[in-house]
Every structure is written in structure tokens, then in C-alpha cells.
Amino acid sequence: MRHDLPAHPPENEVNGGQTSYRAVNFSPFTARAMARHGWACRVNVRTPSDEVVLDVLVAGYDNATHVAQASRAGRSPLRLVAPGVDVTGDNDAYTTVDLTTAPAVTTSAQRDARVADLLRQTPRYDGQRWQLWTGQRWEDLRPTSAPESAAGA
Question: What is the 3-state secondary structure (H, E, C) of 55-111?
Fold first, then answer.
């Protein structure tokens, strides 16, 4: 989907209200286009709600903007993701919960140092993990070797 088309921004009723979209006059992204896009996003024959589609589109736009800005500044984009629920009800979807940057990570030593730093400072919740933008995709940041166990000490 192109993000440069004139469109009315998604609206949220706040305090847990539903997110909705209304096309502005002469917008090529009409309510019918929204319905077609939702149908094209179906998983296991289930079409996601407009709210889910809008949330994914906004998250995608936010991530793309974050990557572009960090790259222009010569920094490495990072994001913290947490488990969510996709349109099928499976717990295999992840939601971005934080975006940040780090000095450019170009070597494995820099990557390992960044992983150690993030693991030291970030409270870990079940399933939460940091990812680094490689220039092509988001890559999970995990230690390259398992830490030594203190059980035998």
C-alpha cells in the first residue's frame, strides 16, 4: 500500500475505543478500497477487522519512518517487539512496543556488544525481544553464545 495518497488519518475513540477510517473527498483510498485491502489481508479465510488492518498499516508506516530516519542519521534502527494476537487468534504475531537507535552496528563485535547492553538494561517480559534492522529485514538480537550457568559454581 502506498502511504503518499491523500487519506483521512485513522481515528480512535480513546480509552479502548475502536479505530476507524473515513475517506476524505477525492481520496483514492475509499471505504471500498479499505474493504478490498482487508479482504486481501485475510488469514485462514478470516478477514481482519478494519481496526486490525489500520493498526498494522500504522505500525508499518512507523517502522519504515524510523528506519529511514535512523539510516539518514548513520545509526542502526532497533525495535522492541512483544507477542500479540493475530487475526486468527494465534499468539504468533508481534507488536512493536519501542523504537530506538544505536551507533551504527557494522561488525559482529559491535552487534554482540549491543546485544549485551540491551539485555543488561531492558526489563525482559515473556516473549519480548529486541530486533536490529539489517538493511533488508528485522533480525532478533540474541547472544551468539549461551551465557555460562552459575548452577555448577
Answer: HHHHHHHHHHHHHHHHHHCCEEEEEEEEEECCCCCCCCEEEEEEEEEEECCCCHHHH
CA distance 140 to 34: 32
Cα dist. 54→59, 63, 111 in Å? 8, 14, 33
State how beta strands 75-84 and 19-20 pair: unpaired
Encoded amino acid at 53, one letter:
V
Q: How many CB atoms lie within 10 A of CB 16?
A: 6
Give the contacts of 29 (CB within 8 A, at least 6 positions apart): 5, 7, 23
* pLDDT tens, residue by residue, 103-141: 998 898 998 888 888 888 766 677 788 899 988 999 888
Sketch the domain layout of the chain as residue ranges.
11-140
